[in-house]
Amino acid sequence: MTTAKPNIPIHELSPDPGDDVRFKLLELTQRDHDISSEPHRHGFYEIFFFETGEGEHMIDFKTYTIGARSLHFVTPGQVHMLNRSGESKGFVLMFSEEFYYFDRENKYLLRNIPFLNGESLKPAFSLDKDFAKVLMDLLHEIRSEYDSGDPYREDIIRAYINIFLLRCKTRLASEITISTEGVNHVVRQFKINIDTHFKTRHRVSDYADELSISANHLNDVVKKHTGRTAGELIQERLLLEARRLLLYSAATAKEIAYALGFNDPAYFSRFFKNHIGQTPEEFRQKLREKYASS
After folding, report:
1. 123, 151, 175: which is the final residue of a domain?
2. In this structure, what CATH number is given to the domain that contains residue 110?
3. pLDDT tens digits for the chain (294 residues)?
4. Do 153 and 31 share a domain, yes or no?
5. Chain centroid to CA 33: how far?
6. 213 φ, ψ (degrees, to nearest 5)
7. Is there a contact between 239 and 272 (Cβ–Cβ < 8 Å)?
8. How many domains does the chain contain in total?
9. Residue ranges of the alpha helices (H) in the chain?
């Protein structure tokens, strides 16, 4: 018997026909645009700038308001869904890590920006008129450069994206609530490794070996900077993925258990209930009823 693979649609960033630039800047106008209103995730970064607009944007089970001069960040792997009402005007900036890091030696620049690395507890911001104009001008420059056909346009676009992100990092610093792990290198690399291997590695010792430290030391460092143990962070990542799949895919709890590296579906069900307070089936039914009635 073939087991179905749990699946939430993942959108990759494909170059436009006749082009090879893994970057896009889409203009938001009417509702009939190229942005999916169904739950999905991306393999790239996506930044929404709403000059005008109404509605809601759900990002990993939290709902944020779409309003005039609002800025929303979606990172690779997050599940999100737009519910827009009325006309929206603005831009959606999309770029892959591959595009951003093309000629950079430092491959952790994006990880140092809180609203792009999961350290910020808030991915959506309301902007004042002056700063909204600064960002809008940059987006227009990016659009103009992309359309120019300049042989160095990719390098110039990367520079503009970097300026855009640094402007946001500086201006929004006072509004960003950072999770308690701060900027510790071991914790950050541990989180990167969890995102990469959480489906196949559930033990703290596996991650400690990869970081060339003992499991006890990894637990001590993670506990100091996050208030949680290394094992709890691994469990949280598994639970987040399980919740995503239960809500947004048609896979059974058994199929999800196997997809997340649990050899015993019954153990997965107990694991889920111990942490969430509901069985996977109960969680799915309750959440789907909630979103169906909203």
Report:
1. 175
2. 2.60.120.280
3. 445 567 677 777 776 665 656 789 998 875 545 555 678 888 789 999 999 988 899 888 889 999 999 999 998 878 888 888 777 789 999 998 878 887 666 666 777 787 786 666 688 999 999 999 999 999 999 999 989 888 888 889 999 999 999 999 899 887 766 554 445 778 888 988 998 899 999 999 999 999 999 999 999 988 887 778 999 999 989 998 998 899 888 899 999 999 999 999 999 999 999 998 999 999 998 877 766 655
4. yes
5. 21
6. -135, 170
7. yes
8. 2
9. 97-100, 114-117, 129-148, 153-171, 185-197, 204-210, 215-226, 230-248, 253-259, 265-276, 280-293
- Neighbour-count burial of 122, counting CB atoms closer than 10 A to its CB (0-12 exposed, 13-18 middle, 19+ buried): middle
Type and span of the H or E element at 52:
strand 45-59
For 222, the token pair is 């993670």
- Same domain for 70 and 19: yes
Kindly state whether residue 4 falls inside one of the protein's structural domains.
no
Distances (CA, A) of 47 to 85, 157, 271: 19, 15, 35
Both 195 and 170 in one domain: the answer is no
How many other CB atoms are found less than 10 A from the CB of residue 23? 23
Of 128, 152, 175, which closes a domain? 175
Shared domain for 168 and 287, answered yes or no, is: no
Give residue 217's domain range. 185-293
Identity of the amino acid at 41: R
